[in-house]
């Protein structure tokens, strides 16, 4: 019995096994934000950036795989449960990935990547030759990157950063090279039968998980520091920041993205642009925003630094930059409100870096409010004009 989703099957909604699988990555995101909040040094920021890239790649390519598979099949569910178990262990090792747990982290990461790819070889064997050969190519690239992951795990810190960076460059470049390998050449365009609507929903749900993690972190920090007179005001500001981020992503852009992915004649190509790469800055921006809100809540009246300001204001700026990418790709029209928001946040990072943390948090919230309100009014005027 085939594990592949039939072409006639409805594949627009995320299945319960997929949603269950996503919960593991909430834990990984919490681990990352806690690690950054505990030590927001340049070295930790660079290391965390590499870990964000790794976690995102694990999640997005598992999403590609489940897009193609029938998640009602027992074998597919067992794959997801195995990946969940590996993901929990990976998240546990995450804070010390550049320390004592480097070998564990790299081994788990490679095992999850290779195991998923080999599963897809069995799934497509004698079912779809074009898709089978695409996953042969993907497996070759995964094996190549795994060599650098494992070499880095046994190297010193500087070499580990370089080797793991190169492994991630290989992985992120592989779709752009269409998984070219000697003898086989590049993968044909649109060789995988992707459901764009399903990909859009999966990424939207992941964004909700990230925003939910931010709310949980904010609530925990507020409960620990509520004795300060400023804590309640900062908590309200942080909560509104998360709410405005939700509005900016879901009010207009997410539906446009879903429509673009579903209506295109090249769903796999569009999915890479909108989801594989396009959602990464959005997710990274939300994580960095959670770290900034941690600083604001734990030390609201402290004089800030350029590093703290970078987290408090840089997170929303990165989030807006990702939304600009999506909305330009989906609607081919740059959102002026988002561009203005990025400019304001970047300027504020330089101008307000020496202010108190709560002041910078208020600037972040006010900027997102302006962006959300500007876009809302602009869309209303546009709809009134076309009505």
Present the secondary structure layout:
Elements: H1 16-38, H2 42-68, H3 74-93, H4 102-124, H5 129-153, H6 157-173, H7 196-224, H8 231-263, H9 267-277, H10 280-298, H11 306-331, H12 336-351, H13 357-386
Tally of structural domains: 2
Q: Class of the largest domain in CATH?
A: Mainly Alpha
> Count of DSSP helices?
13
Structural class: mainly alpha
Query: Roughly how much helix do the residues carry, as a percent range?
Result: over 70%
What is the first-to-last residue Cα distance? 51 Å
Mean pLDDT: 90
Question: Which residues form runs of ≥5 with pLDDT under 50?
Answer: none
Q: What percentage of amino acids are in beta strands?
A: under 5%
Biggest β-sheet: count, sense, barrel? none
In CATH, the architecture of the largest domain is Up-down Bundle
The CATH topology of the largest domain corresponds to: I/LWEQ domain
Tally of strands: 0
- Shape, per Cα inertia axes: globular
Element pattern in H and E: HHHHHHHHHHHHH
Radius of gyration: 21 Å
Question: Can you walk through the features of this model?
Answer:
It is built from 13 helices and no strands. It has two domains: 16-173, no CATH class; 196-386, I/LWEQ domain, CATH 1.20.1410. By secondary structure, the protein is mainly alpha-helical. The protein has helices at residues 16-38, 42-68, 74-93, 102-124, 129-153, 157-173, 196-224, 231-263, 267-277, 280-298, 306-331, 336-351, 357-386.
Quick structural summary:
Helix content is 77%, strand content 0%. It has 387 residues and is mostly helical.
């Amino acid at each position: 019995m085939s594990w592949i989703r039939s072409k006639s099957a409805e594949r627009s909604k995320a299945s319960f096994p997929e949603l269950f699988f996503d919960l593991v990555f909430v834990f990984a995101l919490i681990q990352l934000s806690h690690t950054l909040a505990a030590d927001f040094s340049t070295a930790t920021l660079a290391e965390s950036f590499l870990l964000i890239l790794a976690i995102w790649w694990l999640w997005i390519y598992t999403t590609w795989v489940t897009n193609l598979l029938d998640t009602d099949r027992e074998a597919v569910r067992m794959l997801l449960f195995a990946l969940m178990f590996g993901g929990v262990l990976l998240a546990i090792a995450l804070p010390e990935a550049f320390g004592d747990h480097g070998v564990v982290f790299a081994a788990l990461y490679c095992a999850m990547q290779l195991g998923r790819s080999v599963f897809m070889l069995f799934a497509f064997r004698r079912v779809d030759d074009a898709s089978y050969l695409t996953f042969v190519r993907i497996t070759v690239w995964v094996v190549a990157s795994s060599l650098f992951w494992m070499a880095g795990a046994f190297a010193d810190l500087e070499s580990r950063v370089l080797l793991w960076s190169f492994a991630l460059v290989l992985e992120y470049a592989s779709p752009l090279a269409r998984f070219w390998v000697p003898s086989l050449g590049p993968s044909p365009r649109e060789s995988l039968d992707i459901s764009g609507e399903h990909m859009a929903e999966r990424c939207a749900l992941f964004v909700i998980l990230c925003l939910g993690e931010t709310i949980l972190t904010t609530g925990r920090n507020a409960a620990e520091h509520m004795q300060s007179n400023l804590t309640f005001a900062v908590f309200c500001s942080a909560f509104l920041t998360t709410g405005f981020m939700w509005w900016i992503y879901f009010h207009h852009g997410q539906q446009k993205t879903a429509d673009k992915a579903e209506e295109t004649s090249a769903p796999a190509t569009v999915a890479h642009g909108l989801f594989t790469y396009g959602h990464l800055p959005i997710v990274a921006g939300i994580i960095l925003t959670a770290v900034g809100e941690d600083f604001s809540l734990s030390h609201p009246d402290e004089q800030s630094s350029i590093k703290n300001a970078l987290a408090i204001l840089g997170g929303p700026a990165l989030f807006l930059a990702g939304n600009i990418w999506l909305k330009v790709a989906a609607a081919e029209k740059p959102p002026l409100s988002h561009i203005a928001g990025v400019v304001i946040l970047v300027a504020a990072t330089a101008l307000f870096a020496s202010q108190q943390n709560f002041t910078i948090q208020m600037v972040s919230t006010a900027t997102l409010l302006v962006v959300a309100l500007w876009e809302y009014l602009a869309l209303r005027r546009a709809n009134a004009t076309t009505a």
